[in-house]
Each structure stands twice: as C-alpha cells, then as structure tokens.
Amino acid sequence: MDLTALRIFVRVAELGSFTQTADQLGLAKGRVSAAVQKLEMQVGTRLLQRTTRQVRLTADGEQFLGRCKALIEDAENLQAMFQPVKSGLRGRLRIDLPTALARRLIIPRLPEFLAENPALELGISTTDHQVDLIHEGFDCVLRVGFLRDTELVARPVGAMQMCNLASPAYLAVYGTPTTLADLDQHRIVHYAAKLGTQGAGWEYLEGTQRRLHPMRSAIVVNGTDAAQAACLAGLGMVQAPLVGAQHLIDAGQLVSVMPDLTAAAMPVTLLYPHRRQVPPRVQGILNWLTQVLETFLQDADAATSLPSSTPAPRHIGR
C-alpha cells in the first residue's frame, strides 16, 4: 500500500477538503482525488463521503483513519531506525511561532540547527494569533499565554516575565504613574487578538490572583510588533514580555513603570497532536526549541494558573 496515498488520505480527512489538502501538500487537486480513489479501490470500500459542500469520513473511513495514522508512524520510525545519528533529522516540518519569539530568539539560532540536520525541510509560520494545528497542517506550535482546554499534547517550556513600559515622550506628557488610581489619567495600548472584542485594562497580581484595572485606550492592536511601535510612538503604555523589550529599555527608548504591579508571568507551551509515537523529526524540534528558550524563561511554575472565572489575558505575547 502506497504510504504517500495514506498520507494524502489522512490530510483530506483532517481538513475535510481536497482543495486545502492539495494546497498544503503542493499537489494538483486531481492527484489528491485520484490517490484517494485508488486507495478506496484497494481497500474495497468508500472512505470519504463527498458532497458539493463538504468531505467527511464514512463509518469505514473513521476506522481506517486510526489504523492509517498508526501505520504511517510505524513506517517513519522503521525508516529512521538504522539511520546514522550523524545524518540528523529528515523530512518536512511545519511549525507556528509567536512573532517576537521567532524574530528575536529562535530564527537567529536556526543556522546551527539546520547545519546539524541538512536533510530537514522546515516551514515556519509566525503569527500572534492561535492557529488550528490539525486543520492547518502544523506538526507543533509554540504558544505564549494561558491555555484553555485543549485536546493537544501540551509540553510546558517555561514562563515569560512581564513588564510595564512607556516611552519617555509619553511620560513627559502624562507623568509617571505609581498607583492603580493614577492609571485613570493614563492610556494603554490595548492588545486584542480580535479587534473590539475585549475591554482595555491593566493586569496585575493581588497575591496569587490575577486582577484587571479598567483603562482607556487610544489604539487597539492585534500584533506584538504593532503594540511595541505604538508604545514607542507615545500612544500609550503596554504590558509586554521583558525578553522582547529589554533591548529597548537598555537603549532608553522605553522606560519601565510600576514594577510592583506587573501582570502574571506568561506560560510558554509547545503543543502537538496526540500520537502513539512522536516522529523523530517532531521530537527533535520540540527538544531544540525547549533548549533555545529555557535560557530566557523562568521556571514554568512562575506562571500563575488561570482560574475559570478570570477573564482571558489581554497583554501581549500570544
């Protein structure tokens, strides 16, 4: 049985679309359709129910999908079983990373990683929005922020210390706040994954509880780069991970304010699909990302858990 056809079938089943599968795998749509049809002929049953609006698994297809995934994983592990260690990882990997972490910490270290793994083909998506790992075809994603319930495997990496920042120009106009009451006279650059969906506020810790002090904002952004640029332009204060702002503090472009009223440290987590056995290339990138990031992060226990009654975090760094 053709492993390529099995991989195509799995992706079609996960995405529910021949077109999206063709786009992700870089194949013609006709080839994707032909591969699935040939597979159905080989196993002697219809695996997918096709309509003009959707593609979904049949009852036989659901049973076949689980066995199919296991067979692919076994084949990959068998193929790598006797590969010399010095040959490194091989195959294709697709990962999604937060923009700031990718730019400042991860991509600068990639040359050494790829030099050790010359047969590895790496695709990197950078975004500050949560992606659908399964339906968008990623092998793993790195997320900064408190996780809600997820069916993915979560591997804690650490926690990012947060800081409060303002530009010298902003402070010259509005003054330097020292108390929560002072914030009523100030503005915050409001970060929201979806514009207009959340009210602006100043996050802080009261003991181990996360609190939110409502604030006015002159601008709402949905990206870390835009938030940082807005802060530099004097449009308001921001609450952001220290690791992405330290160079601006050192250069005097941003000033730390109210250090005793910072937001809770943000957990950093690697997520990947449930699998009986994680392919060597995925395990390799998980280990490498952990090694790269651990130098810059606090222990994972530094991140305060998210009570169910607590509103979703509003500061930067997803």
From TrEMBL:
<feature type="domain" description="HTH lysR-type">
    <location>
        <begin position="1"/>
        <end position="58"/>
    </location>
</feature>
<dbReference type="GO" id="GO:0043565">
    <property type="term" value="F:sequence-specific DNA binding"/>
</dbReference>
<keyword id="KW-0805">Transcription regulation</keyword>
<protein>
    <submittedName>
        <fullName>LysR family transcriptional regulator</fullName>
    </submittedName>
</protein>
<dbReference type="GO" id="GO:0006351">
    <property type="term" value="P:DNA-templated transcription"/>
</dbReference>
<dbReference type="InterPro" id="IPR000847">
    <property type="entry name" value="LysR_HTH_N"/>
</dbReference>
<keyword id="KW-0804">Transcription</keyword>
<keyword id="KW-0238">DNA-binding</keyword>
<dbReference type="InterPro" id="IPR058163">
    <property type="entry name" value="LysR-type_TF_proteobact-type"/>
</dbReference>
<comment type="similarity">
    <text>Belongs to the LysR transcriptional regulatory family.</text>
</comment>
<dbReference type="InterPro" id="IPR005119">
    <property type="entry name" value="LysR_subst-bd"/>
</dbReference>
<dbReference type="InterPro" id="IPR036388">
    <property type="entry name" value="WH-like_DNA-bd_sf"/>
</dbReference>
<dbReference type="Pfam" id="PF00126">
    <property type="entry name" value="HTH_1"/>
</dbReference>
<dbReference type="Pfam" id="PF03466">
    <property type="entry name" value="LysR_substrate"/>
</dbReference>
<dbReference type="GO" id="GO:0003700">
    <property type="term" value="F:DNA-binding transcription factor activity"/>
</dbReference>
<dbReference type="InterPro" id="IPR036390">
    <property type="entry name" value="WH_DNA-bd_sf"/>
</dbReference>
